[in-house]
Every structure is written in C-alpha cells, then in structure tokens.
Amino acid sequence: MKYIAKKPKEGINVSDVHPLVEAGTLVVGLTAIFIAIVLLLVFLIEAALYFVPAETEAELFADWLPEDLVTISPSDDRLYEAQMLVNRLSAHWADAPYTFRVEVDDSDLANAMALPGGLIIVTQGLLDEVESENELAFVLGHELGHFRNRDHLRALGRGIVLSLFFAVVTGNDVAGIGINVADVTLRGFNRDQESDADEFGLAVVYAEYGHVDEAWRLFERWDEQRNGTTGIVTYLATHPDAGDRVEQLERLAQRQQWPAEGEVIPLKW
Ligand SMILES: [Zn+2]
Fold first, then answer.
1. CB under 8 Å, gap of 24 or more: what pairs does 186-190 form?
2. For residue range 68-100, what is the model confidence (pLDDT) as tens digits?
3. 232 and 110 assigned to the same domain
4. Which of 114, 185, 207, 211 could cross-link to 92 by cystine, CB 3.0-4.6 Å?
C-alpha cells in the first residue's frame, strides 16, 4: 500500500488564543519576573547591611578615601571649620557609631555626600554657596541623617553593597571594592530618605543653636535664583526641589515649635 503523506492542517502553529491576550500574558509575566528580581536585590541589600553593622563599617573604612577624590589643601581654613562644625553637630547624636571625617573636594559643583565609614565630602562649590554657619550646619546635619539611616550604603548601589558584604565575610580588604566619588555624585536618594535626613538635620541644628534661623536659607536662595548658576545643578539633581524642601522644613519647624529666629553665626573664613 502506498503511503500518502497527509498535509498538516492549516494553522496548527496558530494558537486559539487571541494574539493580544498572548502579548498581554507575556508582558505581565516579564513584569512579575522583573519585580521579583528587584525585590530580591532589595532584600539582599538589607540583609547585607544587617550583617555589616555600622560599627564594623566604621572600623573597616576608618582611613579610607575614594580613589578619585581630589582634596583641597589640608591646611585650608574651610576644611578645618567644616570638620569642627561636624564634630559639634554629631555630639548631639548620642552613641553615634561613626567618627565623622570631613574632606573638601576641589570641584566647583555644589554637592555634599555621605560615604562609608563616616566620611562626609563637601565640595568647594558648596562652601562658596553657603553664607552663614547656620546654612552649612543644616547641609552637614542632613548628611548625618543619611548615616543615621544608613542610606549612604544603599546609595552606593547593589554591586558595591554586596561586594562590601563579601569582603567582610571573606576578610578581604574593603579598599579593593573601588568606590568613586563620581559613582555616588549622581545617585540620589528617594523622597522618604531625603525628608528623613532633613528632619534629622534640622533637629541637630536646633539642638546646637536653640533655633533654626537661616537653616534652609541656602535653599530659599537657590529656589529664587532657579537656573541662575550652573554650580548648583548637581546638588539639586540628587536632592529634592529646593522650594518644596523649604516648605517642608518650615512646616516641620512649626510642628516642633523650634524658634525660627535667633542669632546667625557668620562663617569664619
Ligand atoms: Zn540627601
């Protein structure tokens, strides 16, 4: 008997499901996988932070500096005054696990950042923008707030936090992780992290001076001169809108009944 191959029926590769429904299923599936990966990474970072307590972090990074940091002269008055101010402000944080170190980066772009081990970097550009000690105190207090919530490690990115964790576990030198100022500069925090840091910063300013006069004056000026100077762009790129911030801080001070008027201290340089 002769075998006659039957032609396959038309459309066997076409599913009965409408193509749009199939596409939808695919999108939903991929989104679910993506969300699961993000949640897993967030969980891993929190776990890594839990296993590397602030005390360990402070010890590991005691003398550490980022590889690409270009500092101003160690005998510069601005560096000395900023360090003295941080010492006074951090004294209001009882049992702080860090010994805070200040370095002044020679960049003209205004910025301030918190780095592992209690290192606070402010740029010359920022020091040129502040007009009173009270203004600088709030910027520094805000960075202390990021240490308090350990946002500074989260902002480094998953890769670095996980290598930090593995460096600790395997006893390797953390210097090899390779953290650069440039990596951190454009990585912002989320709104909640920012407003928590602002609350802490303002509380510290109030504890130091007994009032919050001029604490957010810098942001008021920046809000008024919006697009005025390019030097403030980096700070604003990584921090909330200056105007919104002023409103929030005013409300916070009212709620806490922190006096808005008081002696404003001139800069010593
Ligand atoms: Zn911040």
1. 186/234, 186/237, 186/238, 187/155, 187/156, 187/157, 187/238, 188/155, 188/237, 188/238, 188/239, 189/146, 189/151, 189/154, 189/155, 189/238
2. 899 998 899 999 999 999 999 999 999 999 999
3. yes
4. 207
